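Record type: monomer structure entry
Structure origin: computed from sequence
Chain ID: A
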Amino acid sequence: TTLYAVKATLIEPGTQAGPVTNLVAGIMAGTLEATLVVAPVETVKTRLVDADKGLLRGVYSFVQAEGLAGIYRGLFATVCKSAANQALRFVIFGEYRRLASRAGYTGPAHEMPSWLALGGGMVAGALGSLITMPFDVLKTKMQGLRANRHAQSTRSTRRARAARAEHAQHAQRAPSDGGLSLPPPSQADIRARCTA
């Protein structure tokens, strides 16, 4: 498994991994997992749900609109969520194994009875998912179809505010004794500045 492969590169054979080793192994495994598998698959899944299209048509339409880089939208949040989740799972499961050995289990960790491993996996998975839920929500919002629209809307709002502020500055500079002043910007003027 990924756990044992990554831990094998971090510790000497025959030694037991401590919490820090498990944490580092989890971060490494989670980062690889998120970059190679989770981010593209989750982005496609989230986009297909938002677009209400079939698999092939949906993937084709958003890759055509955003390019292959669009598949990695929300990568940072996905890496944070996956790395933290795996790190927590590795640490929690490692500590669970230590508690099991203190309670009387004497066999090697990879030969733990199924019921004992199931209990540890359930605890580690539940706690890991619970703690990393905020990253999961952020990741899903960043990957959705509306994420790009929200970013464009935010830029347009900033430009509209800048146009109004510019008008207000010109209006303050205009002489108050009947001199020339600028008319307020029309909606068309504001829209033109927002799309520029």
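Annotation 1: The radius of gyration is 27 Å.
Annotation 2: The chain is about 75% helix and 0% strand.
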